[in-house]
Amino acid sequence: MSEIESVSNQSKLKRYDKAYLRMATTWAQLSHCCRKKVGALIVRDGMIISDGYNGTPAGFDNSCENDDGDTHWYVLHAEANAILKVARSTNDCRNATLYLTLSPCKDCSKLVLQAGICRVVYSNEYKDTAGIDFLKNAGVEVVHIPDPFDDVEI
Question: What is the mean pLDDT of the chain?
């Protein structure tokens, strides 16, 4: 591949990364959580194979926080919901890219690695970067795009 083709491919990849992050941001708005709304998309071979947002398990009340504003322990993170949705399908996450509005926590990072996801693209950083550090050390490509809306033409 020539240097020009490589630059062109990188430019196209970044354009798609930003588009998928914008979609994940829209998907996050479906969350009933008050403290933080997080969205996730899993893309493989140019197709969205799963989506998720943070929230309670099926059959539970949609309230994510208690009266004191603390998140219930049983609330599922967006990436866990997306990975679990793939597990219920005939698809799998091997060699997929996970797009997140918030970088994964250390517990979700284990799920990401075990699911076979090879690339994580996120826009906002979680307070604890141990999850991102874990993924990088495990050989997962991690890309931080702080503002996926910075060059959107409307």
Answer: 93
Concatenated DSSP letters for 51-91? EEESBPPTTS-S--B-TTSPBPTTPBPHHHHHHHHHHTSS-
Phi, psi of 40 (to 5 degrees): -140, 145
Crossing angle for the helix pair 106-115 and 78-87, to the nearest 10 degrees:
30
Distance CA 142, CA 140 (A): 6
Q: Which one from 5, 65, 79, 153 is the annotated catalytic residue?
A: 79
> Is residue 141 flagged as an active site residue?
no
Collapsing DSSP to helix, strand or coil, 8 comes out as: helix
Please write the tens of the pLDDT for every residue from 125-154: 999 999 999 999 999 999 999 999 987 654
Tokens standing for residue 65: 């926080």
pTM of the model: 0.92
